[in-house]
Amino acid sequence: MAYDIDMIKKVYSHMADRVNKAREVVGKPLTLSEKILYSHLWDGEATEAYTRGKDYVEFAPDRIACQDATAQMALLQFMQAGKKQVAVPTTVHCDHLIQAKMGAAIDLQAANKTSSEVFDFLESVSNKYGIGFWKPGAGIIHQVVLENYAFPGGMMIGTDSHTVNAGGLGMVAIGVGGADAVDVMAGMAWELKFPKLIGVKLTGSLSGWTAPKDVILKVAGILTVKGGTGAIIEYFGEGARSMSCTGKGTICNMGAEVGATTSTFGYDDSMERYLKATNRADVAEAANAVREHLTGDDEVYANPEQYFDEVIEINLSELKPHLNGPFTPDLATPISEMGKKAKEHDWPINVDWGLIGSCTNSSYEDLTRAASIAKQAVDKKIKAKSDFGINPGSEQIRFTAERDGLLQIFEDLEATIFTNACGPCIGQWDRSDRKGEEKNTIVHSFNRNFSKRADGNPNTHAFVGSPEMVAAIAISGRLDFDPTRDKLMNEDGEEVMLDEPQGIELPTKGFAVEDAGYVAPNEDGSSVEVKVAEDSERLQLLTPFEPWDGKNLTGAKLLIKAWGKCTTDHISMAGPWLRYRGHLDNISNNCLIGAVNAYNKKTNFVKNQLTGEYDGVPAVQREYKKEGIPTVVVGDHNYGEGSSREHAAMEPRHLGVKVVLVKSFARIHETNLKKQGMLGLTFANENDYDLIQEDDTFNFVDLENFAPDTQLTIEIVHADGSKDTIKANHTYNAPQIEWYKHGSALNLIKKQNAA
Question: Can you give the pTM of this predicted structure?
Fold first, then answer.
């Protein structure tokens, strides 16, 4: 039986009435996304039609999921909210703090030793506040959610940008910062700008070497890393129905890489099969009763141009396998063209590692398709030229795959089976063959491939592909290998070809597991003590941020003008810094150390205007804070893309940065800045970015009149005394301005709870 089945049945009990009312109010047929959004309004049934991309709307999500790296800060914030228990079903998953190095058993043992303080904190705080806890080794949050909690037509939020994976089971699942999650945990509404809608019509069916991963690799190439910003991507058509549930999850998962709010598919037979296979026949039965409301209206899919803001059509029968990268997940290249492109760009041809797993591609079906290629290599006497690493998605997947002999196939190729955790996908990889200054290539089935993402090495060229394509390329050892036409030389000197991959959607013997890794909380956690040592390097109780004094902000110095791509990885790196995710002051020592200074094109090397000397960003900012001097960060387009980590907003706030002024924001990061009481502004004229000089001082001359839909005026004073006056836009509405006035959204929550 499913977790929280009563909650799911409650959602379904009012779905028909709410969808019908929304259709009446909107005055037209509804997409699936609109049905889910309108049936989750905070105030119940719809009373008005919302304008996409403009209106802020309050929603009531059904559940929350947090991974260990972000859960620390989210729960430290929740502890300040004054609540005895979380208001909606919530889970914590320990999957980020396990480094991949030697193999599952040794690596998990090491993680339990080095991060025991954090795991103990998370388990105790979960136990106290009624939160379900998944132990280290239980699996990657998004695979565990898909197996246990996701349900068609539901709405969930999670403190990880790949929460969107649950769209594979027909949810609207959205990645948020911890402060957003705290609102919902505390029983408050969750606010979101009503998304625009992108429809992707899938015709035909996949075959051969083409996989569900290739759908999103193609879409990423079309939309780019910011083309989906502020939109939900809804997939439909015969091609959508022909794919497995976990294949749909893969597509939704990587939608985060095009900036989409989320992605989703309508409920169909593959989802029903998956629910039943994962011991949730009760959810399938309940979903079947409201099936017509768990997909878009027929008129919508018949004439999508009339109902979506943008429509993309992909014929799966014609889609070719792709590799995306390096350094960005939207650089899409058909595998047949990779050799030519690699030569043109001088990408290293030899492949050192093939990595299979991550929350994007770690299902049973994924492993079977990759294993079918690996087995051919063994049977045809082909020795793998690259190292292999495998991260199963959950203990249930791992146990079942081991039972069915899949893991042994990889081990026969001398692959390393890592823990059921994120591992190299998030930089938690102690790579055995460190390359230093040497350019090198890896291929993986992950979602992101930003510079330094997997191994911390800026010289590593990472390419994203399907698990079966990663397996084939790793076996060949060459980036330019096309398994659809190229042959390999085996150990007997014979030329052989790899046959097309074969996959099994669901295990024929069913899923099995001895210990899934779940720990249920106490019904009454009032006596549970949450311990945080005063001298801990890993955990630190939070001190509320100071409220705005209501005055204009003057005399602010430029901290850094970031040049080019500046993701949350650049603002707050992961990897070894994950150990400090629960200690705001310590982790603030990585603040913006990956951002490129526009004036010298170096990282972590900025001018201190007080001394004229250059130093690391955190060190310079701490000097400004010590002297009580406010500062400004300036950035380029899509600032803050990537992970949902709110540390990228909390660290500058903690260190005294007052304003982030950029050409454009990624959605989650902009919200995180607002939640933490920061000013997140965009240039009204993006060319004004070029006016900013290294020794500039900023005066925000009309901040006292801060109001919705009203530009702010900034006076820029240059070192020679000359001035430029520019305008800045913002997207703050009245409630969000209250967050700013109170110093943070959490400060406002505490005040309201105390009233």
Answer: 0.89
